């Protein structure tokens, strides 16, 4: 049984990561062929610097990802604190259910509904273009918020509720008590939520496609390229993005392991 389980896991890993491995290998291919390896070369990575369309799309993607991750982390943390402070259990469950809807909802439904909403308000206020930078940013914040809330909420439940009260008794204001006591204890959840929000925003295609207008992100540009032909510099850029996300996941695991170790020490004490 152990051998079969190992073979099964190996096949799953092969199925998941073989396409990525092929992409990385051919990003260093000196020829444009996707069938034969013509030699090791960095020419496609160097060619990225001359591809203004792709570089511009990458800048748009990073701007949206960073801004949406920061804003959704701040709003999501505040929302998680507010939800955790609710005394009515039925109300708390209802709010969490509503919060989880964007995660359970199909991306295409969310994208189309947001597009219609933005177009309606654009026409209502007489905007020249209803879709653009701000609509993409709002859309990304919308689907990032639930993930941040779900990352921060467990850390709030693990925090001793008597600690903020003790800080207040010792002379702290509610704000300083939150900053000095509560915030450090939920910091790992905040970092996790930020990394998750950044990764989801970086990877999003469907919702961005319906809300971008002329402000196109990298996944949309790559999708438009597939209608004609995908050049090898796309493999190079995808490899860079994959490595960046992989590093973020490693950082997430490090932060999570440190948090778990600190909690085990606190329980042991």
Derived from helix and strand composition plus strand pairing, the structural class reads mainly alpha
Q: Indicate the mean pLDDT.
A: 83
How helical, in percent, are the residues? over 70%
What is the rounded distance between the termini? 40 Å
Major β-sheet profile: none
Q: Which outline best applies?
A: globular
Number of helices: 12
Listing every helix as H and every strand as E from the N terminus to the C terminus, the arrangement reads: HHHHHHHHHHHH
Radius of gyration: 23 Å
Strand content: under 5%
Low-confidence stretches: none
Count every beta strand, where a strand is a DSSP E run of 2 or more residues.
0
Structural commentary:
With 269 residues, the protein is mainly α. Helix content is 79%, strand content 0%. Helix 1 (2-27) packs across helix 12 (232-268), helix 3 packs parallel to helix 6 and helix 4 (89-104) crosses helix 6. The longest helix is centred in the last third of the chain and has 37 residues, at 232-268. It starts with a helix and ends with a helix. The relative contact order is 0.13.
Which secondary structure elements does this structure contain, and how are they paired or packed?
Blueprint: H1 2-27, H2 43-47, H3 52-84, H4 89-104, H5 107-124, H6 133-158, H7 162-169, H8 174-185, H9 187-203, H10 206-211, H11 218-226, H12 232-268
Helix pairs in contact: 1-12, 3-6, 3-9, 3-11, 4-6, 6-9, 7-8, 9-12
